[in-house]
Every structure is written in structure tokens, then in C-alpha cells.
Amino acid sequence: MKKVLVLGGSRYFGRGVVERLRDAGADVTVLNRGSAPAPGGVTHLIADRDDEAGLKAALGSRSFDVVLDQVCYTPVQAEIASRVFRTDRYVMTSTIEVYDQVRTETPMTESLVSSVPVDLGAASYDYGEGKRQAETVFAAAETPFASVRVAHVLGGEDFTRRLRHYVERLDAGDAVDVHAEPRPSTFIHASEIADFLAWATLADFTGPVNAGSHGELSALDLAAAISTKPRFRVVERDASPFSFDRYAVLDTSRATGLGFSFSTTTDWLGKAIEDVRKA
């Protein structure tokens, strides 16, 4: 039985990961700030990951076979984690946004983003930059490390409300703000990324891996799945979520080669849209 520590895991697909690991027979400990009760059948530790002394006190002498870090956003957090957690393997939930500076017309492979300069003294970090630097910190540590670069997540209890933005506007007959030529990106359903992260946690590979459903989508595709007569307004900036001015599709062949089979967006997009309407 693997001893697994999950950082975060209190909401959205993170909670689903905890439940899947538990149901797979892992000995699961969840560590977060206690904003919501942990699922039954797991150990729940309460601490602020930014408080190094508090983390050490909450963990005591505990060690783990693997840590799944759902809530690491900066290199400072990664540095603290590298010092505090005793584990044989570290897995970080990263993001497609690590590729936000890549310009390509072919699906993006993991090798396009590797180590980057780390600035531990920055006042703040953009989302993609913070994740890039955090990956770099973990990769340089002695503990075997894997990062899961997650596509845009749709479905489930999505607190970001990005798909809801499209559904509400288009159902009301309003226009969606888009770039002049919206480009496609990669998406994944909340339940599927929970499946993937649980699978990745119990695996033994290292290095970055992209995770996303087959079937790229643009803002136009999303709108067409919601409305038979979608309306659009072209803007130069402040476009709707998921409207991209660059090709941003993930190459998921590494994950497939490691043994995971992804769904296709057409398998679940319609239901995700209907779930938003019901909610």
C-alpha cells in the first residue's frame, strides 16, 4: 500500500483525485488549510503551505512514498516543499500555461519548456511563469520529480465559471468577445484529469507530461457546441476565456506512450454544457 500525501485536494478535480487514490487502496493523507472537510477514509492535516515551521509541525515524523502537489504556484513554495516533505517521489500539478510564451504551429511537446531562471525574490508571479519556475526548482532537487501539464479543464463543479461565461451569454443571445482569428487549444474534463492525476501519482515516471483530451477546440468551436447561431464581437484585448491568438495545442503522445488512454472532447463536451445549464 502506497503512502500518498496530497497538497490541496479540497475542491474541484483535486477532491476527485483524493477519492480515486483512496479507492485504489492508497494510504492517503490530505494537507491543506482546512477550508473544507476531507473525504472520508483519509487522514487530514491542516497547515498553510507557505508557513514552513507550521508545515513541519503538522507533518511531524511522517514520510511518504509520493507527494502529489495540487497547489504549488511559485518557486518559493517549491523551495519550501523541497526542504520539508520526506518522500520518494514528487508529482506537481502544472498547467498548459507553462507554454504561454511558445509560438508554434504544431502540437506542443514537453521539451519546448525545460529549466528557466528562478527568481525567489519576485513580488509576484504570473501564473505560467510561477509554474515554470516551480517546475525548475523541483527538477533540480534530489527527489525524483514529475510534472503534469494540465490542459484547460471543463465540466464538474468548475469554480472558474469560464464555460458558464459562454453558456450564459450565448443562451441570452449576447455576443462572445473573441480575437480576430481565434486559435485552438487543448481541453480535458474534470473527471478525466482526476483519473489521470491519480494514475500519474501511482506510476513511477519522471519529467513533464502533457494531459488533455483528443480533439482541439477554439472559442468558435465551443460557441458552436452551445448555440446554433452564436454571435461574436471581435476585440483586440480582454477577449473571452479560451479565445487565443496563438496555436496552443498539447502533444499528448508521451502520456499515451506511458499507458494512459485519453477520451475525445466530443465524448463529453455536450454533457458539460448541459450540466452548466442545469447548475
How would you describe what is shown here?
The protein is α/β, with parallel strands linked by helices. It is 34% helix and 18% strand. It is built from nine helices and eleven strands. The protein has helices spanning 12-23, 52-59, 75-84, 127-140, 162-171, 190-202, 219-226, 253-258, 265-278; strands at residues 3-7, 27-32, 43-46, 66-69, 90-95, 145-150, 152-154, 175-178, 187-189, 207-211, 231-234. The strands form three sheets. Strands 3-2-1-4-5-6-10 form a seven-stranded parallel beta sheet, sandwiched between helices. Helix 1 crosses helix 6 and helix 3 (75-84) packs parallel to helix 4 (127-140). It is globular.
Please specify the SSE layout and strand pairing.
Elements: E1 3-7, H1 12-23, E2 27-32, E3 43-46, H2 52-59, E4 66-69, H3 75-84, E5 90-95, H4 127-140, E6 145-150, E7 152-154, H5 162-171, E8 175-178, E9 187-189, H6 190-202, E10 207-211, H7 219-226, E11 231-234, H8 253-258, H9 265-278
Parallel strand pairs: 1-2, 1-4, 2-3, 4-5, 5-6, 6-10, 7-9, 8-11
What tags apply to this protein structure?
7-stranded parallel β-sheet, two-stranded parallel sheet, 9 helices, 18% strand, 279 residues, 11 strands, alpha/beta
